[in-house]
Design brief:
Helix content: 25-40%
Number of domains: 2
Radius of gyration: 21 Å
Oligomer: single chain
Order of helices and strands: EHEHEHEHEHEEEEEHEEEEEH
Strand content: 25-35%
Mean pLDDT: 85
Structural class: alpha/beta
Low-confidence stretches: 129-133
CATH class of the largest domain: Alpha Beta
Length: about 240
């Protein structure tokens, strides 16, 4: 079951959402709200899986509300204004329903949410297996789960609520904290060298007193992490 809530300042829009949700066997409506702040209280008590969110509302817009959330559920925007579509997708939402929408279009959106949740669960099971931590990991990017070969990672850069993983032909941007990605990496193969950077030991070209060079990229070596990093160098755990 996907636990969801609906937020819209128009009661008729909420009535339609509630009716549509009731027709979907895998959806459970935990609450409906005309005010985003009231919905926040429920979300803090018990997390939800999916949020149906109007964009243009008084006091706070749906986009502002979504940006304020530390733990973001899957989101389907419901709005009468197509001008917000690009910004909505930049926030990595599941879908964007333009009012008035049909039940068929609603069903397509929630099926995407259901498929994505299944992918997340499969990825978790894979990551519990013996291959996890030594071969690959899955991250959410470009509205799908992307498989990354850990051995191809050069370094990782933290960007507020996102991390950019430099590997392969182009970097992969995913919504994740530095702490979360660090916990998923083999500790003997990667090390934090700066608040915003994690590097792969075997990809280091040379070490300067203030930076590390990997494929021509100068990565800052912070004083807060330098002692631990240099200690590992002296113990010959890197730079063979």
């Amino acid at each position: 079951m996907i636990r969801c809530i609906a937020i819209d300042d128009e009661s008729l829009a909420l009535d339609l959402l509630e009716d549509n949700i009731s027709k979907i066997p895998f959806l459970e409506l935990a609450g409906r709200y005309t005010n985003a702040f009231d919905a926040l209280n429920l979300m803090q008590e018990k997390p939800v899986d999916l949020l149906f969110l109007d964009i243009q509302m008084p006091d706070i817009s749906g986009i502002q509300f979504l940006k304020s959330l530390k733990q973001k559920p899957m989101v389907i925007f419901t709005t009468a204004f197509s001008k917000y579509a690009l910004e909505g997708f930049e926030l990595d939402v599941i879908d964007y329903l333009l009012k008035p929408y049909s039940f068929a279009r609603f069903l397509k959106a929630v099926n995407k949410a259901h498929e994505f949740l299944e992918l997340q669960e499969r990825a978790k099971e894979i990551q519990k297996g013996p291959a996890f931590g030594s071969h690959y990991l899955f991250v959410r990017a470009d509205y799908k789960l992307v498989k990354i070969d850990i051995q191809e990672i050069l370094y990782i850069e933290g960007l507020k609520d996102y991390v950019k993983i430099y590997c392969g032909e182009k970097p992969v941007l995913t919504q994740m904290s530095m702490k979360s990605i660090e916990e998923k990496l083999p500790p003997h193969d990667f090390i934090r060298v700066h608040r915003s950077f994690i590097v792969a030991f075997n990809k280091i070209d040379f070490i300067h007193k203030s930076f590390i060079s990997i494929r021509g990229k100068e990565i800052p070596l912070s004083d807060n992490y330098k002692d631990n990093f240099l200690s590992l160098v002296q113990q010959n755990k890197i730079m063979e």
